Amino acid sequence: MKNFLEKLLKIDRRLIFLALAILLVFPIVKPLGLPNLNLGSEVKSLYERIEGLPPRSFVLMSLDYDPATRPELHPQAVAILRHAFRKNLRVGILTLNAGATGLIEEIGERIPKDIAPEKVYGKDYVILPYQPNPVAVMTQMGMDLYQIYDKDRDGSPIRDMEVFKGIKNVKDMQLGICITGTAMLDYWIAYTGDKFKFPMAGGVTAVSQMGYAPYLQTGQLKGLVGGMKGAADYETLINHKEKGTSGIDALSLAHLMVIILIVTANIMMLWLKYL
Amino acid sequence: MSETMLIFGGWVAAGLTIFLFSFLYKDNPFFKVTEHLYLGAGMGWVFQTVLFQTWKPKVWEPLQAGDWTVLIPTVLGLSLVTQFFPRISWISRYGFTFIMGYGSGLVIPLTISTDLLKQIGGTIAPFMVSEISRANIGSLINGSIVAIGFICVLFYFFFSVEHKGVVKKASNIGIYFLMLYFGAAFGNTVMGRFSLLYGRFDDLYKYSAPKYFYATHVILAALVIYFVVDHFRKKKPEIEEEAA
Q1: Domain-by-domain residue ranges, chain B?
Q2: pLDDT in tens, B27-80
Q3: pLDDT, tens digit (0-9, with 9 covering 90-100), for A205-252
Q4: Which of A27, B92, B136, B208 has the largest CB neighbor count within 10 A?
């Protein structure tokens, strides 16, 4: 028995990789439909905040994620956008991350196709071009956004667009949402949220989610969507299940495997040490 | 995007993903090529984005319109490039001086306000008379836990007093709070990494469709054949050496 356990503890780790790969691929090929019953309170806060906004309110979305964090953050962006359009809000999309421009192009193509085909570019939403130096952009957005953005991503002047009617800076907007895998949300909180009393919410990766808890406690963040689980929660709340929800099956199976491996390995270690 | 480009893109994406994952089996030339390609493509993408979305509209177009004021920030920015030429690298100090002054003036007051004062305020807020009079027991308990954790963790990182007696007990409690944080953070990290892996597998599944001419299957099979051939090719000289 002892020899067997020792051999098992020295198992080729590539077999564990293979098992994990099979567990993650299986629900993609054959979805299990495991329920997502525990919705995060901070996700609900963001949902309720958007739900409570009057029609034609302006929501600023800073999509600052690149392909490396796409699986976690893209479903969040799509779900929040879908909700905002459903509530007939005006949406301004921008990015301060050069790696995000391609993903924003994808969102720009999806809005008229399947996210909100009835919405009109320039009237209901606008996509602004990438800008470097995030801090300069954020502080300028608090004073006069046209000083930093005079054209949209296609080069059309934005000042006369219907979507910007009555908007001069973030004080005229009702909510800001930064979705990022970087520290960009920290900047938005400090340089726009706190400085100009602009209500901010965020969407972040699961890795950095814990670090934003203090901002939620103080009310500096009005809501937070964390990782693929957060995206799944939001999709459940808006009753439109997509990539976030389908990932829950795979995550649940993978977590189960990790728990089983940790418990088994500990029992084996204790067995070898004391028996 | 045309259908041909879409299929080509699918093959490239599936191929690069599989080549990167192949490192989990063992190091190989496909992984090396993809690794370098990743860095090169990333830098290329950022370069063209900055060139066409920043330099052109913010520098080139204003200059063409006769706005010469943009030359001031442009020259300051270009001064940083002189770092590469030791004889004139002193010029870069002007650019750095501007960045340091501007950055410090902006960051210091806001960081103190956002990350220090507001956080201290948030820790005290549940114990204010107005909050207590509302008799919100849940908020009071949460606030107490946060305050105890906050003070104990601060004690753990306070090194000017010897850790013994009450201070030692407080810092020990601080360690438990830190362990709870690290545990939760690590759990979230595992979930995050699995999400990213799931995302790649989801894309690989998409590219395995007939629409993409079974890109995932073909590339995966080709890589397996490579590893098998490589295994026997390396084994052959070893057998010959043993025979000699």
Answers
A1: 68-127, 134-211
A2: 999 999 999 999 999 899 889 988 988 899 889 999 999 999 999 999 999 999
A3: 999 998 999 999 899 999 999 999 999 999 999 999 888 888 888 999
A4: A27
Opening angle at CA B225, ends B219 and B228, nearest 5:
145
Integer Cα distance of B204 and B13 in angstroms: 8
Tell me what percent of the residues of chain B surpass a pLDDT of 90: 66
Contacts of B205 in chain A (CB under 8 A): 25, 28-29
Using an 8 Å Cβ cutoff, are A201 and A49 in contact?
yes
Blockwise average pLDDT, block size 10, chain A, 275 residues: 84 90 91 86 96 97 94 95 97 94 92 94 95 90 92 92 96 97 94 94 94 92 95 95 88 93 92 87
Angstroms from B243 CA to nearest CA on chain A? 30
pLDDT for B126 equals 82
User: Nearest by CB to B114, which of A25, A132, A190?
Assistant: A190
Nearest-CA neighbor of A115 among A128, A127, A106, A103? A106
Q: What pLDDT score was predicted for residue B1?
A: 65
CB contact residues (below 8 A), chain A span 152-171, against chain B: 155
User: By the CB < 8 Å criterion, does B54 face chain A?
Assistant: yes
H/E element, A178: strand A175-180
User: What is the third-level CATH fold of A41-241?
Assistant: Rossmann fold (3.40.50)
Task: Enumerate the residues of chain A whose CB falls inside 8 A of the CB of residue B49.
Answer: 98, 101, 130
Inspect the interface and report whether the beta carbons of A14 and B190 lie closer than 8 Å.
Answer: no
Q: Cβ contact (<8 Å) for A72 and B53?
A: no
Token duo for residue B202: 């989801």
**Cβ neighbours around B146 below 10 Å, total:** 17
B97 and chain A in contact, CB less than 8 A: no
Q: Position of tokens 């070898």?
A: A272
State ipTM.
Answer: 0.86
What pLDDT score was predicted for residue A194? 93
* Segment B203-230 mean pLDDT: 95
Question: At residue B139, does pLDDT exceed 90?
Answer: no
Query: Can you give the pLDDT at residue B143?
Result: 86
Chain B residue closest in CA terms to A71: B199
The count of other CB atoms within 10 Å of the CB of residue B10 is: 21
- Do A72 and B196 count as a contact with CB atoms less than 8 A apart? yes
Query: Angle at Cα A236 formed by Cα A231 and Cα A242, nearest 5°?
Result: 60
| Residue B14 scores a pLDDT above 90 | yes
Distances (CA, A) of B244 to A189, A272, B54, B231, B235: 71, 44, 66, 21, 15
A17 near B CB under 8 A: yes
* DSSP 3-state percent helix, strand, coil across chain A (nearest 5): 55, 15, 30
Chain B residues close to A256, C-beta within 8 Å = none
